[in-house]
Recover the amino acids of this structure.
């Protein structure tokens, strides 16, 4: 089978210069886990290029492009305007213009109590928008279950049968399915003037249980956010969340991240893992 992904030895600069005139600076973003990521400045704007580093994420980047087109006019937050390309070896990669702001990862410690409350309400509005989308009417996109996608991720980074970690999510996905971002973590949320303005990276997207995105975010933020997010979810959706469901899904994500980190440290030593996970 022909390789459809990129390696650290590829000539990324030559590929980038096919798309950006008068390149002033190319900076590799060290924290790219699933792709080689480059920030490119042309003296006027910043662009991001992403080149998948294994076959699985080559398929993911194609899926993300299709999902971005689908979701663009269905939510109120900004999303990247992705452009999908293929090199001479039919390997996919994407480009998009930078969305101005800072990631929640870089500022969540500095938000005031009032700003945290505003953020929690804004993120619930996003989840409400996801749940209002009738994905069953769409004929042109294969909406993959997030549990199936996460199983593929585990297969990339482990030789063992890890499906047991997904049992809880699969059971929850038997009911209350909705559009899901799939990896709603602070690094994928952009704020401007402490206001949520954009959501990034739909590579894990698909359909899943309504608690999947909430739990992902809860698991990647300090405990000071946990009760606030859950309380606002319960208020907006008029439901009572079973704490065991949240805890079981948190264990699922921890297992996946731990295994993937081990995989990266073994197979992709050039990747600098972020301090905040």
């Amino acid at each position: 089978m022909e390789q459809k992904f990129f390696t650290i030895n590829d000539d990324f600069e030559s590929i980038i210069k096919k798309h950006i005139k008068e390149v002033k600076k190319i900076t590799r973003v060290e924290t790219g886990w699933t792709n080689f990521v480059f920030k490119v400045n042309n003296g006027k704007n910043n662009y991001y290029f992403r080149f998948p580093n294994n076959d699985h994420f080559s398929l993911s980047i194609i899926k993300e492009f299709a999902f971005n087109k689908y979701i663009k006019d269905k939510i109120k937050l900004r999303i990247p305007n992705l452009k999908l390309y293929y090199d001479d070896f039919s390997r996919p990669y994407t480009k998009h213009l930078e969305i101005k702001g800072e990631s929640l990862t870089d500022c969540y410690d500095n938000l005031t109590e009032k700003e945290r409350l505003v953020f929690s309400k804004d993120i619930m509005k996003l989840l409400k928008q996801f749940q209002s989308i009738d994905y069953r009417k769409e004929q042109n996109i294969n909406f993959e279950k997030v549990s199936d996608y996460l199983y593929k991720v585990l297969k990339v980074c482990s030789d063992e049968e890890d499906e047991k970690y997904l049992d809880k999510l699969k059971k929850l996905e038997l009911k209350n399915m909705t559009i899901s971002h799939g990896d709603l973590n602070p690094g994928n949320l952009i704020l401007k003037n402490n206001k949520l303005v954009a959501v990034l990276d739909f590579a894990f997207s698909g359909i899943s249980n309504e608690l999947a995105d909430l739990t992902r975010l809860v698991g990647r933020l300090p405990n000071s956010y946990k009760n606030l997010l859950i309380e606002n979810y319960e208020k907006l959706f008029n439901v009572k969340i079973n704490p065991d469901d949240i805890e079981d899904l948190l264990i699922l994500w921890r297992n996946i991240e731990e295994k993937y980190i081990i995989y990266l440290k073994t197979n992709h030593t050039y990747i600098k893992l972020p301090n905040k996970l």
The mean pLDDT is 89.
